[in-house]
Amino acid sequence: MTDTGGLERIDTSVAHPARRYNYWLGGKDNFAADRESGDAIAKVYPAIRTTALENRAFLRRAVQYLAEEAGIRQFLDIGTGIPTADNTHEVAQSIAPDSRIVYVDNDPIVLTHARALLSSTPQGATAYIDADLRDPAAILAHDSVRQTLNFDEPIALMLIAIVHFLFDEHHPRETVRHLIDALPPGSYVVMTHGTSDFADPALRAHVEAEIRAGRLRLDAVPRSKDEIAAFLEGLDIVEPGIAPVVEWRNPVPESDRPPLADAALYAVVARVP
User: Fold this and answer.
1) Over the stretch 18-68, which tens digit does the pLDDT of each residue have?
2) What is the chain written as a DSSP string?
3) Number of C-alpha atoms within 13 angstroms, CB side, residue 192?
4) pLDDT at 71
5) Which domains are seen in the chain, by residue range?
6) b vs e for 221-255, b when ≥16 Cβ sit within 10 Å of the residue's Cβ?
7) CA nearest 197: which of 228, 218, 162?
8) What would the pLDDT profile of 129-172 be if each residue is shown by its tens digit?
9) How far is the C-alpha of 255 from the C-alpha of 253, rounded, in Å?
10) Residue 4: predicted pLDDT
């Protein structure tokens, strides 16, 4: 089951985070505006492609943990992005073929690739809906969500590199809490979030100067570790806690990982008591 409308909403003249992320990952599903925006950000933060790759690697590790160790069989993945290798359903169903996944995104380009996201195992199920994180009630009430996921059983809410696109006027804490409050006990929340905590002071000053001069426009809000923790108040944080994305249960030797400043994301997995 998937929505079929929305293609008329494609605006190739305006950068979209999902297509820009695809560009950083080396994909081809992007337009000039996405590449220009991606290059502008890379000019002041050259490690942005490393950040994108490390974010994707964390997704694989987190889903593996949830499916193997936590026994989770249901996933609500909001801010899916354009399909690439090791999507949530591919990782989860390779471990537990009966896993059920709903993907959510508001980019019509993602909708055109929904068939790749819907390639479920016979034992499991996948669905894709065209919806926006800023309207959590609509996500939770969607027929495909309710038909694919059982809200009487634990669900993993995946918020991978998406919450930092919520500005204060979007009421980010209330939006995330709306989703968390709908989860049954034993569910999990998985989040990565951009931060400037690891940034070199000189780089931070340079970015701020570029923004003031109008040469750079950020469409995301970096937040501190404490600010990210506030989204998860009352939840049980899984070890190693709110950690740099390159450190969260990473089997790669520390000497072979990129520096923290080259992957400016926090990562966290938290359990709903």
Assistant:
1) 888 888 888 888 899 999 988 988 887 788 889 989 999 999 999 999 999
2) -B----GGG--TTS--HHHHHHHHTT-S---HHHHHHHHHHHHH-TTHHHHHHHHHHHHHHHHHHHHHTS---EEEEES--S--SS-HHHHHHHH-TT-EEEEEE--HHHHHTHHHHT---SSSEEEEEE--TT-HHHHHH-HHHHHH--TTS--EEEEES-GGG--GGG-HHHHHHHHHHTSPTT-EEEEEEE-STTS-HHHHHHHHHHHHTTS----S----HHHHHHHTTTSEEPTT-SEETTTTT--S-GGGSPPGGGS-EEEEEEE--
3) 26
4) 98
5) 11-271 (3.40.50.150)
6) bbbeeebbbebbeebeebeeebbbbbbbebeeeee
7) 228
8) 999 999 999 999 999 999 999 999 999 999 999 999 999 899 99
9) 5
10) 38
Question: Can you tell me the distance from the alpha carbon of 239 to that of 170, in angstroms, rounded to the nearest whole number?
Answer: 30
pLDDT at 7 over 70: no
Tokens of 144: 């495909």
Q: Please state, in angstroms and rounded to a whole number, the distance separating the CA atoms of residues 79 and 110.
A: 10
Cα 131–Cα 134–Cα 138 angle in degrees, nearest 5: 50
pLDDT at 82 (0 to 100): 82
Cα gap 37→242, rounded to integer Å: 29
pLDDT at site 26 = 82
Long-range contact pairs involving 33-36 (C-beta distance under 8 Å, separation at least 24): none
Q: Is the pLDDT of residue 96 over 60?
A: yes
